Automatic annotation (TrEMBL):
Localisation: Cell outer membrane
Taxonomic source organism: Idiomarina aquatica
Location of the OmpA-like domain: 240-358
Protein name: OprF
GO-annotated biological processes: monoatomic ion transport
Keyword Zinc recorded: no
Molecular function GO terms recorded: porin activity
Amino acid sequence: MKKLNAVLLALVSVGMTSAAMAQQTQKQPGEFYVGARFGALNLDSDRVGYKNGELYNVDTGFDTLDTGVEIGFMLTQYWETRIYYDYVEASIEGSPGDLYGQSFGSDFLYHFNDLVYAGLGINGTEVGDLSDAMVRATVGHRQFINDQLSWRVEGGVQQGWELDHTESFVNFGLQLWFGEPATVAPKTRPQVEPQQAQPEPQPEPQQPVDSDGDGVVDSNDKCVNTPKNYSVDETGCVMYENEVIREELLVEFDLNSSKVRESAMGAIEEMANFMKEHPQLSITIHGHTDSTGEADYNQWLSERRAKSVGDVLIKRFGIAANRVDYKGHGESQPKVVENSATDRQENRRIEAELKVVNRVPVKR
């Protein structure tokens, strides 16, 4: 048992040291995972169980191992639910051999940010044919190795209401993710109905006639039936000019955070719709920070912010990844001179701009 506990602690240590190579991935509603669990229980000192018809006390102090599986589902961007089943192996106090059992239950988890979550659940824990129904509180930390694989470590307490056991636990898990995030249908912009051509009036005999009323008589008019509200040249053809259409994106961030605020999703969606209307365009997202902190850290943080917005365009609003690029500028390009907390907030941002040039008719 002690050797197995040492292996478990080594696994947790390896997972924690891999944090430097992990990336943060913001999971969306509709994605789910299956995972493996490895943990240890500190059973209540009053916990007993049967073996071969005899009653034994169990060891305390995290000498009980539990291994199992879990299935989880993202209800929203912040709420997650899961069910789990563990096989339990407990040492007998003062005697060789083990007591066996199981632990199963479900949790609701709330994610405070990309790394930390907490939750409540119900649980049934059985050791040596004696079980207790329990309420469990959990605090955990999750890191993503890539978009499909994550690891987590967590701990907490559970309280029984049948046998009044109070117990604590730690465990480590690996999770494999599946499914597509829920998407929001893009807004459609109103379509402008083409103006119907006016019927050509019959000219009066021996009088100059301007059939379409554009100011150019029919004998000199090379473009008939031009709309009356458009300007024309000396040949009666519509005059055109270049019109620049711009779409700008500005998203601000919390201090030391690269997590996209939910309040910014509307502005990002409008940029996504503009890109869908103009599939020839690609976007470069520029990330910035305020002057707080070291320059190297701010450069890294600005790149993370730009990538976070790019991931929302790709994963939530369906923009092709080869049309989205990002670049971090750290603290080198402030929007305003920082003299207050409000100024620093304005500098914690990403910016992007797209424009197209259309030829449009000149109106009178």
